[in-house]
């Protein structure tokens, strides 16, 4: 006899994540666990996509041919960029390519988001983070963004030390490296750090439309309020059912570095009463949660406003616009997957 488990609530979870788990989990998330360069499908109308694949394959080949000699002469690194920076809009496959590079390269190596990297420094401290990563061959950083002056100085110093130790770098972002921080803080006051970061990378531009919506039907409309709970009850074990306002309040009590752990064992997400988010701090926490949900390929079923109305016009007009658009794109994709979880009308 199969016993169904009732949905859980994410608001009851306050995970504790040890520092060693943060390091161990710096690998491609499940969604990108099997991607490779040959599974990336370039848009024939965007030649920069195919060119990026060729350049990254060559970069991986250089890493594989680097040999052990590099370990003995780290300070003899040639001047110039020590990494690749993939710049482009959301949904053009940058994370796919970054994960493919990770899979094609020798270890030791790590892949994490920018937020996860700064969280690692917060958990280990700067010195231990440098020690933990300086023996790597490759560090891949997804969603590279400078949100405040503290991040700018921290990351500039950290990546400088890692590059000097011979660690090769690869990053993705929606912003060119010399434009990081624009619209978010007085970036001109930290131009030396920003330019120093920019000099670490060879930038590759990847244009194109969001593949998550390429040739696909429009995003499903929100479901009726009573259908969310019904869908959660009918879902496989591991469903998480929450009232959206309560979940937003709960996110403020959990460090973003623990959002992934908060989703441990979850197989589907169900939200009642989605409403527009007006506060920037709340919105940025929701972006992180959406990213961790997307990494884990979690379907979403929700009532309330559609996801393209999730963030106010004021937020979308600010410095974090690209973050919010990426979150909308990913939530829409997950909502398409979630549409299959909604029971058919009787």
UniProtKB/TrEMBL annotation:
GO terms for cellular component: cytoplasm. The keyword Hydrolase does not apply. Gene3D superfamilies: P-loop containing nucleotide triphosphate hydrolases (3.40.50.300). Signal peptide: none annotated. The keyword Ribonucleoprotein does not apply. Keywords: ATP-binding, Cell cycle, Cell division, Nucleotide-binding. SUPFAM superfamilies: P-loop containing nucleoside triphosphate hydrolases. One of its GO terms (molecular function) is ATP hydrolysis activity. It comes from the Bacteria. GO terms for biological process: cell division. NCBIfam families: ZapE. This is Cell division protein ZapE.
């Amino acid at each position: 006899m199969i016993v169904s488990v009732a949905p859980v609530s994410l608001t009851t979870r306050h995970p504790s994540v040890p520092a060693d788990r943060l390091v161990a989990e710096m690998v491609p998330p499940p969604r990108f666990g099997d991607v490779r360069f040959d599974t990336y499908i370039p848009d024939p109308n965007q030649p920069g996509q195919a060119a990026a694949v060729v350049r990254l394959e060559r970069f991986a080949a250089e890493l594989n041919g680097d040999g052990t000699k590099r370990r003995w002469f780290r300070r003899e690194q040639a001047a110039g960029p020590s990494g690749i920076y993939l710049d482009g809009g959301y949904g053009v496959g940058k994370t796919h390519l970054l994960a493919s590079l990770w899979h094609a390269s020798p270890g030791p190596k790590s892949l994490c988001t920018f937020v996860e990297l700064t969280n690692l420094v917060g958990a280990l401290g700067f010195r231990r983070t440098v020690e933990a990563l300086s023996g790597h061959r490759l560090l891949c950083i997804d969603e590279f963004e400078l949100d405040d002056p503290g991040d700018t100085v921290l990351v500039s110093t950290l990546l400088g030390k890692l590059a000097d130790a011979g660690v090769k770098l690869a990053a993705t972002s929606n912003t060119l490296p010399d434009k990081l921080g624009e619209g978010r803080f007085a970036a001109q006051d930290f131009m030396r750090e920003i330019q120093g970061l920019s000099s670490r990378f060879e930038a590759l531009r990847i244009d194109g439309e969001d593949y998550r919506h390429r040739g696909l039907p429009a995003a499903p409309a929100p479901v009726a309020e009573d259908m969310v709970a019904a869908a959660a009850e009918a879902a496989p074990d591991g469903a998480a059912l929450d009232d959206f306002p309560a979940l937003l309040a709960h996110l403020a009590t959990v460090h973003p570095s623990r959002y992934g752990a908060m989703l441990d064992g979850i197989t589907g997400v169900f939200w009642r009463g989605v409403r527009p988010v007006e506060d920037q701090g709340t919105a940025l926490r929701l972006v992180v949660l959406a990213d961790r949900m997307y990494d884990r390929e979690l379907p979403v079923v929700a009532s309330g406003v559609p996801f393209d109305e999730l963030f106010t016009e004021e937020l979308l007009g600010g410095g974090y616009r690209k973050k919010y658009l990426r979150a909308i794109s990913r939530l829409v994709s997950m909502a398409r997957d979630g549409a299959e979880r909604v029971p058919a009308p009787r």
